[in-house]
């Protein structure tokens, strides 16, 4: 569904991604793990059209999308949940959700909102509250809900566990599993490598801008290199 080939991205001459290759098959949950600064966010931002690659190809459902503006890519069904949630703190939960459906018809937005509030009953309870007053876990749910309002076919999620208590992280991952079970293809980046590998089908390990390892998550979790570098074993 998504194919990244030989992707190079630089910030003012600093090479952040070097020849990255990655594939996300339809219906899969693919994880990307790696240390701080390895280039994980850069990769998602480049796929989403927020950064222009220096070289390489990004194909979504068979069409080249590199160089297209971010809003066009989102409209085509490839949506990013950014690191740090980035919801609108001065808008209510309901308004935040509506922003996610900006490219959809009113009827479609109403239907999507019903589904999102079913998936996240907590957001229903808080729907008239300002986004900025929610807890970290609720904000992550809102960021996911807002992205779902755009009716994505592939959802990319940047560090959903960031800054959340362990119990809340489990709730967020439970929500991700339900979203995936509903048929959505997911590409997830996550510092918590164990959680990412336990919850994905296939995974890639990014090290200083290059893919160092890849394979079924089940095998990577047993791989001595992964265990030593990322699982503290
Ligand atoms: P983290 O988990 O800390 O977000 P990451 O794996 O997502 O790490 P990136 O944020 O993609 O890593 O950063 C990759 C490299 O690019 C790092 O060396 C980082 O310092 C650099 N970098 C990221 N954003 C910028 C920027 N806007 N300008 C210059 N350099 C940047």
Task: Give the CATH superfamily.
Answer: P-loop containing nucleotide triphosphate hydrolases
For the CA atoms, what is the radius of gyration? 17 Å
* Proportion of beta-strand residues: 25-35%
Overall average residue pLDDT: 93
Segments where pLDDT lies below 50 for 5+ residues? none
What is the terminal separation in angstroms?
Answer: 34 Å
Largest sheet, described in full? 6 strands, mixed
Ligands and ions found:
adenosine-5'-triphosphate
- Count up the domains: 1
CATH class: Alpha Beta
Q: Within the CATH hierarchy, at the fold level, what is the topology? A: Rossmann fold
Number of strands: 10
SSE topology string: EEEHEEHEHHHHEHEHEEHH
Strand order of the largest sheet: 6-7-8-3-9-10
The helix fraction, in percent, is 25-40%
- Structural class computed from helices and strand pairing: alpha/beta
CATH architecture: 3-Layer(aba) Sandwich
């Amino acid at each position: 569904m998504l194919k990244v080939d030989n992707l190079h991205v630089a910030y003012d001459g600093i090479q952040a991604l070097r020849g990255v290759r990655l594939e996300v098959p339809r219906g899969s949950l693919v994880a990307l793990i790696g240390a701080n600064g390895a280039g994980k966010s850069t990769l998602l931002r480049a796929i989403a059209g927020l950064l222009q690659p220096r070289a390489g190809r990004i194909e979504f459902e068979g069409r080249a999308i590199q160089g297209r503006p971010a809003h066009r890519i989102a409209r085509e069904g490839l949506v990013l949940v950014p690191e740090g949630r980035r919801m609108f703190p001065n808008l209510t939960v309901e308004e935040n959700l509506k922003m996610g459906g900006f490219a959809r018809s009113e009827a479609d937005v109403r239907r999507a909102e019903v589904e999102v509030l079913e998936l996240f009953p907590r957001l229903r309870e808080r729907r008239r509250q300002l986004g900025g007053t929610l807890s970290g876990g609720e904000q992550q749910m809102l960021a996911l809900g807002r992205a779902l309002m755009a009716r994505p076919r592939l959802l990319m999620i940047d560090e959903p566990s960031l800054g959340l208590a362990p119990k809340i992280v489990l709730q967020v991952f439970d929500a991700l599993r339900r979203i995936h079970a509903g048929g959505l293809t997911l590409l997830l980046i996550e510092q918590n490598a164990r959680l990412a590998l336990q919850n994905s089908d296939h995974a890639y390990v990014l090290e200083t801008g290059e893919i160092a390892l890849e394979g079924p998550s089940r095998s990577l979790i047993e791989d001595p290199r992964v265990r030593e570098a990322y699982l503290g074993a």
